[in-house]
Design goal:
The protein has 64 residues and is mainly alpha-helical. It has one domain (3-59). 78% of the residues lie in helices and 0% in strands. The chain has helices at 3-28, 36-59. The termini are close together.
Length: 64
């Protein structure tokens, strides 16, 4: 069991959820609603978590 790979998968899932939530906020944003700050925050955090998770999974070597 490789803990780094599990943590990388968890980060990837959190990043995907953040990006999906940012996309939902973007689609449902009306002209009077001022959720731009939340949209930017969730988008950036989702992107950072997603990239960090993918890189952690990719760079972890399998030890047999």
């Amino acid at each position: 069991m490789n803990l780094k790979r599990i943590f990388g998968g968890l980060l990837t899932l959190l990043g995907t959820a953040g990006l999906i939530y940012a996309a939902v906020l973007f689609v449902n944003e009306s002209t009077g609603n001022n959720d731009t700050k939340a949209l930017i925050i969730y988008g950036i955090l989702g992107f950072v978590f997603f990239i960090a998770g993918i890189n952690l999974i990719r760079t972890t070597k399998d030890a047999a």
